[in-house]
Structure to design on (569 residues):
């Protein structure tokens, strides 16, 4: 009775179950400014949706969730459109380069192995660094030490020397327009090589390399994810026919509601608390990936490409 | 109206072409398959086909469902550096049926299909499929393992079935008995044409066989979505993103109203 047939996935699913998954992932998206594909795609695969359809339909639903989340964060004054646009330009150039790079890497052989290992290591490094840095941040606040003006780091001095300096009012930072373009490019290359949305890499980059306040990072990240996923959805629909709109619609009904609640929760949490929770999430994804590499799979064969 | 007319024409076409074609005939036998057309609507969640009929008292029935064969490529998982499990290559199974189901009566076991010289003539069951399917690249000593994993994958999806005690008998009159076999069609089966082969055996020897086509077809909204996605991919993608954006904005507006001018 509560089943719906998904024509592109070629499978039938429980409506309530899919709605609940959407709600949960939308909540995470609204809190942390990540797309949630890392969680949604494996969940859909567990329900028997082919991996390619799961990933493409998830992109479609992220369009809805990130529209809802961006709007909620915009109302709270948490979206830096100027920064977001520059990161998007860099991200677009980076993902195009990354797609070409991955072709070359695969030609060299054993690229999948290198990619997965570097992904696990990077998640571990980023998650671990964020976790300990935020713990230290919280401890310093508790100790209520008298703040001493920080000595300017080498990185900050270098950034000031770059041309075309501009002020990003929402983020309260000033540096060259080339910095977000370059960092966006870097994340774009990584996202294309690793086949992920990039939210996990982009958020730490904004926090640590662009020195943006955590709440503005979440809103701006969602704004950027929105455009990335519009591009992915249209490309996948046009070339691979893997977007299941019925599935995406059910998911986004849940995720758009979840994203609104997520944005409210995000507002209530402190910057360091948000960072710790995100760091835990990043580390959990790393552990999950590590387990999938170490535990022998149940079946030693998998469909290749668009099953 | 037009849609209804099209569905009626499809059903009529299938019914006309779906009359069972006996391969080895025996006039004493009647076999009936219901339904011969399965329609996939918006709330489709699999279906059941029932094969039943009347056969001589000393006969046995084996039912097989098979889909068209295609060359299918799979990724192989293997050990890298001795500890990590990853994709280590690919293998192609040639002319592999998308669906392969074999239903047996109580008197015939799965192992007998390959061990009994008379039953081997039927050329049915996973072992027979393995013997008649080629793979590339074929590395030494790997074939058996790859087919074992293939059958594991396909049975998990419900697309391959080998089931004992699936054909049941009830006594009838005049030296005849009635048989019934229920075939569960999982929702993962793709729309298309499939063949049900009903084989009748006496003393493990085939004396009657009938091939009956069945059709699985999408109707209504699923048919509309599939048509749009495959024939107008870009338009479909643009529409999908637009609807997602509208849903996101709508939810944003609704929530703003609820919390009172945040």
């Amino acid at each position: 009775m509560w089943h719906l047939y998904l024509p592109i996935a070629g499978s039938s699913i429980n409506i309530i179950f899919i709605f609940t998954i959407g709600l949960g992932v939308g909540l995470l998206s609204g809190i942390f400014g990540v797309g949630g594909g890392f969680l949604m795609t494996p969940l859909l695969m567990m329900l028997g949706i082919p991996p390619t359809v799961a990933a493409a339909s998830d992109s479609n639903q992220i369009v809805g969730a990130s529209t809802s989340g961006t709007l909620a964060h915009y109302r709270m004054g948490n979206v830096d459109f100027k920064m977001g646009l520059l990161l998007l330009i860099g991200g677009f150039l980076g993902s195009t380069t990354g797609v070409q790079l991955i072709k070359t890497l695969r030609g060299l052989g054993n690229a999948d192995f290198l990619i997965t290992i570097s992904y696990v290591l990077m998640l571990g490094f980023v998650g671990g660094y964020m976790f300990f840095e935020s713990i230290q941040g919280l401890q310093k606040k508790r100790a209520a030490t008298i703040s001493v003006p920080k000595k300017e780091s080498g990185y900050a001095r270098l950034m000031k020397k770059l041309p075309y300096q501009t002020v990003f009012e929402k983020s309260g930072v000033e540096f060259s327009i080339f910095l977000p373009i370059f960092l966006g490019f870097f994340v774009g290359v990584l996202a294309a090589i690793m086949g992920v949305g990039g939210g996990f890499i982009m958020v730490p980059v904004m926090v640590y390399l662009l020195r943006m306040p955590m709440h503005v990072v979440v809103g701006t990240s969602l704004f950027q994810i929105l455009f990335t996923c519009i591009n992915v959805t249209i490309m996948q629909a046009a070339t691979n026919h893997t977007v299941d709109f019925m599935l995406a619609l059910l998911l986004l009904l849940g995720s758009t509601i979840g994203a609104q609640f997520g944005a409210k929760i995000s507002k209530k949490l402190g910057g360091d608390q948000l960072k710790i929770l995100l760091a835990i999430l990043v580390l959990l994804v790393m552990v999950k990936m590590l387990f999938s590499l170490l535990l022998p799979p149940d079946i030693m064969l998998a469909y290749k490409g668009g099953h | 109206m037009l849609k209804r007319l099209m569905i009626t024409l499809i059903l009529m076409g299938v019914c006309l072409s779906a009359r069972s074609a006996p391969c080895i005939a025996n006039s004493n036998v009647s076999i009936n398959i219901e339904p011969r057309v399965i329609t996939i609507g918006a709330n489709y969640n699999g279906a059941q086909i029932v094969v039943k009929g009347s056969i001589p008292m000393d006969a046995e029935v084996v039912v097989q469902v098979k889909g068209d064969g295609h060359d299918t490529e799979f990724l192989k998982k293997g050990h890298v550096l001795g500890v990590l499990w990853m994709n280590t290559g690919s293998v192609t199974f040639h002319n592999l049926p998308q669906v392969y189901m074999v239903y047996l009566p109580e008197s015939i076991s799965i192992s007998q299909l390959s061990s009994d010289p008379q039953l081997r003539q039927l050329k049915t069951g996973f072992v027979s499929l393995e013997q008649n399917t080629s793979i590339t690249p074929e590395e030494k000593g790997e074939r058996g393992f790859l087919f074992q994993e293939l059958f594991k994958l396909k049975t998990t999806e419900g697309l391959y079935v080998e089931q004992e005690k699936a054909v049941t008998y009830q006594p009838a009159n005049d030296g005849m008995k009635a048989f019934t076999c229920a075939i569960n069609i999982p929702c993962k089966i793709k729309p298309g044409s499939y063949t049900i082969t009903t084989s009748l055996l006496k003393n493990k020897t085939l004396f009657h066989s009938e091939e009956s086509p069945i059709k699985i077809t999408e109707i209504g909204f699923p048919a509309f979505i599939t048509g749009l996605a495959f024939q107008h991919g870009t338009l479909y993608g643009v529409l999908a993103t637009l609807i997602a954006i509208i849903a996101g904005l709508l939810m944003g507006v609704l929530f703003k109203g609820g919390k009172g001018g945040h």
